[in-house]
Amino acid sequence: MSNTDHSHHGDGVGHAVPIKFLVLICSILLFLTAVTVWVSWFDFTEINIAEMGIIMALFVATIKATIVGLYFMHLRWDRPFIGFIFVGSILFVVLFISLALTDTLEYQPEIIPGNTPKVQEALDALKN
Amino acid sequence: MSTLTTTNSNDNYLNHTKGILSWLCTVDHKRIGIMYLVCVLFAFFLGGVFAMLLRFQLLTPEGMFLTQDQYNQAFTMHGAIMVFLVIIPAVPAALGNFVLPIMLGAKDVAFPKLNLFSWYLWIAGLVFFLLALATGGLDTGWTFYTPYSIDKASSMGGVIPALIGAFILGFSSIFTGMNFIVTIHRLRPKGMTWFRMPLFLWATYATAIIQVLATPVVGITLLLLIVERSMGIGIFDPAMGGDPVLYQHFFWFYSHPAVYIMILPAMGIISELISVHSHRHIFGYKFIAYSSIAIAMFGFIVWGHHMFTSGQSQLMNIIFSLVTFSVSIPSAVKVFNWLATLYKGSISLNTPMIYGLSFIFIFAIGGLTGLHLATLATDIHLHDSYFVVAHFHYVMMGSALIGFLGGIHHWWPKMTGKMYHEGWGRVAAILVFIGFNVTFFSQFMMGSKGMPRRYATYAEMPEFQVYHIWSTAGSVILAIGFVICAIYLLQSCFAGKKAPANPWGGRSLEWQCSSPPPWDNFAEQPEVGDCYDYSVLEWNEEEQGYVWKKDVLHPGEANG
Hints:
The structure holds 2 protein chains of 2 kinds. Chain A is an all-alpha fold. Helices cover about 65% and strands about 0% of the residues of chain A. Chain A has 4 helices and no strands. Chain A is extended, with a radius of gyration of 22 Å. The N and C termini of chain A lie far apart (about 70 Å). Chain B has one domain: Cytochrome c oxidase-like, subunit I domain (Cytochrome C Oxidase, Chain A, Up-down Bundle). In chain B, strand 3 (about 535-540) and strand 4 form a beta hairpin. In chain B, helix 2 packs antiparallel against helix 3, helix 10 packs antiparallel against helix 12 (about 385-415) and helix 13 packs antiparallel against helix 14 (about 465-495). Chain B starts with 19 loop residues before the first helix and ends in a 12-residue tail after the last strand. Residues about 1-10 of chain B have low confidence and may be disordered. The interface between A and B is medium-sized, with 21 and 33 residues.
């Protein structure tokens, strides 16, 4: 049945993105993937930030996810409400991860330090 | 302009096309709804058999006929079947699929083929659960808690098929939710603004939001569990440095909103039943509508109340306990509005209304006992006792399932074009109400006195036998009620009186097409007015149903 809501694009036909543009976006994403791999080869312990590799990787991943959301998922040309829905779902992820992580962090002091026997055994086997 | 049909059409969705393939390959939402209904009721029967096994096993403290392992399998299969195969899909997929597009005056849902695919996914989920039984059994509990579920040496071999089954069922749920969100957004008729929608649609919309947001989380969790069990990656296994409580966080982040997937649509049905069968405009429409959304949102921030004794940190225990109290408020808002709707209404104690009134009584008890469990101090004692079992059966079985039954009886004339025997309907409804309360109220009592759940025997605690006997007796009454219900509903399909288009005097659009509906629902999309204004209808003796008053214009006709 016909609906009473007018599509964002007026004529009911989806916004057609040129193939060349999509190929450009894909190339940018591949380049950023290469950057992630290149960064992973660095040893950041020299600058006393061992986690820098993870921070860089997550930073690049956020940029990639934003590009995917804006262009591949069409949010760039869609109603702001749709973008709000997308951001809302990210907020749910943040809610979930933050509460679960808070719980895990809270009982860290009670955890016996070091590796479990099984893990230690596996690590020793790897060294040998 | 009128699209009303007041006599049964010879051509309707049931006989428009013939043959088994016309059903298995249908994209008609009504046929898909009927297929879901049949399948869900079959799964309910299967889950019920396991329930009766449990109840009869517990008649004596030493147990009657099940070994410990068999008992563990019985409660696991009962829980898994009832949660994943019955109560989650029941109202949205069976009744929602049938009613939602017609309530919107639409020809079908937004994505009819996806709708059929959802049903096939349900079937695949069922097959995997049966495979779990056949390939070693399942004894982890429906919650699949680690580390037991990842221990191949201890737990039974059917864990991975069951996990795959639950994963597939999750997708069935997600696709149904997506379909409903888009249908409600895009296929509403002229005049049906958001606040002119029937409340069943608000409830279904809120449910669909939860389905789409929460279900992927359990999907990934179950996949992680499969990988953990098969490859030992160590994410949940404490022997490998993993965190078993993290599994519970992952699991309950979905499974708590899942209980709102179960109850919200049933609450939507009750809003319709109470209003229609008391012939009174629903009280507090906006409050009920907003409370559905509030329940959906609040339901995402309380999952830790299932984990108070799991080893969860004290800080999180306090936060979750506090927030859990808030989630009861929108539910209470609904109950008060239903009661206000009944006040000074012209109440017809039809079978659907008896289920509706039963719901209010039972849900009040179930909801209030949730507060005992939300309170940290009392939950320490009540966790993993029969008090918890009684609480969730009051809200899931006594409320969600009774809402489902009420909906089936309310829309049965519309779905089948036949009226069931009203007398037997009332008898069955009363037996279900009495049987349910006898079964589960005794469980509150024994739970508060210390009877643990998931125990195959209780020889050290023979003082609980009298409560178990009451509970089992109640389950027999409940089963008789269900059997009577099944008999008269089936009998009505073959020999029931022809149903009029509007036997109850409803105003929503599904009552403005014939019973059963034509295959395309409406010739033209109808215009809508206030779907709770019953003053425009009157009883027609000849039709044995309600018709539009002769001197009142239909909504579109006022404008010529």
